[in-house]
Design goal:
β3 (about 65-70) and β4 form a beta hairpin. Helices cover about 25% and strands about 25% of the residues. The protein is α+β, with helices and mostly antiparallel strands. It is globular, with a radius of gyration of 17 Å. It binds one DNA strand through loops.
Length: about 280
DNA sequence: ATGGTGGACTATCCA
């Protein structure tokens, strides 16, 4: 029998930058145990499609899987307990073919849900598109996504992923000290907010956590004690279309995952809603 | 104090 009797129509979607799906395959079991998701969206799988560990993931109950991977870098995947179909006509962002997006239709209770899984370019170290082409790529990627969703709108839709931008003051450990740091510069924040407004996206995590409270999903590897320093950023996001905002029922940021053996520098994030 | 660590994969690139 279904476990969640009181909310049997609810759908739980998780997103995680796994930073190598092959290395951290065992940690997916932890995620499933702790969050009980119906759908998991992964970023930075760093795995060519022919080497994707389908069997291990199927054994966790995710019988439906769509993947878009390449050798060494990037790579996204959608793992689902419910049937999913690939959205074939979505753009190849910036024409690079670099495996940063997977759009699917999810066969959910109450009808199809459009689900977009993004891995936005990190953008390099220097926040200047002339000096640093990676930063230009990041801004262009966000601008292109903004135009596309602005033209299409979003209904019964969810957008998740590592967007590599922390938009709000309390999405970073020090707003002032990160104003010149890629991920929190004003031009990136303006871009991300514009994208969010483009199709009326609703920030599902800030639906639950007030904007004056610190909220992070990523802590650098380059810290002796990540928890003590707590210099985090909220780089991972879940947005829902306006028509779903009122149907959100819970959220979870799995901070304990940062202490798993061979942890990713990102932690899984989940929301539950009734579509 | 301008470092530090981690993953992919073989000399560095990327985060």
């Amino acid at each position: 029998m279904a476990k969640r009797g009181a909310s049997r129509q609810a759908l739980r979607i998780a997103t995680w930058n796994i930073n190598s799906v092959r290395l951290r395959l065992p940690l997916l079991q932890n995620l499933v145990t702790d969050l009980a998701p119906d759908v998991i969206c992964l970023q930075e799988t760093k795995c060519p499609d022919e080497a994707f560990p389908h069997e291990g993931i199927a054994a966790l109950g995710f019988t439906h899987r769509l993947i878009r991977g390449m050798k060494g870098y990037n790579g996204v995947a959608v793992l689902s307990r419910l049937p999913i179909t690939l959205r074939e006509d979505d753009p190849d962002w910036c024409g690079k073919g670099d495996c940063r997006h997977l759009g699917v239709m999810l066969d959910a209770p109450g009808g199809p849900v459009e689900l977009h899984n993004f891995y936005v370019p990190a953008g390099g170290d220097i926040p200047d598109r002339e000096a640093n082409p990676k930063f230009g790529h990041k801004l262009d990627f966000v601008a292109e996504a903004t135009r596309w969703f602005d033209a299409r709108g979003a209904k019964r839709a969810v957008l998740v992923g590592d967007l590599n931008i922390a938009p709000l003051e309390h999405d970073v450990w020090s707003h002032k000290q990160l104003l010149d740091v890629v991920s929190h510069t004003p031009i990136e924040v303006e871009g991300l907010i514009g994208w969010q407004k483009a199709a009326g996206w609703h920030d599902a995590l800030r639906h639950f956590v007030p904007e004056d409270q610190k909220l992070y999903t990523w802590w650098s590897y380059r810290a002796r004690d990540w928890r003590a320093a707590d210099r985090g950023r909220r780089l991972d996001h879940i947005w829902v279309s306006d028509d779903l905002a009122g149907k959100l029922s819970r959220h979870q940021v799995l901070k304990d995952a940062r202490d798993w053996p061979q942890a990713s520098d990102h932690v899984p994030v989940l929301v539950e809603f009734t579509p």
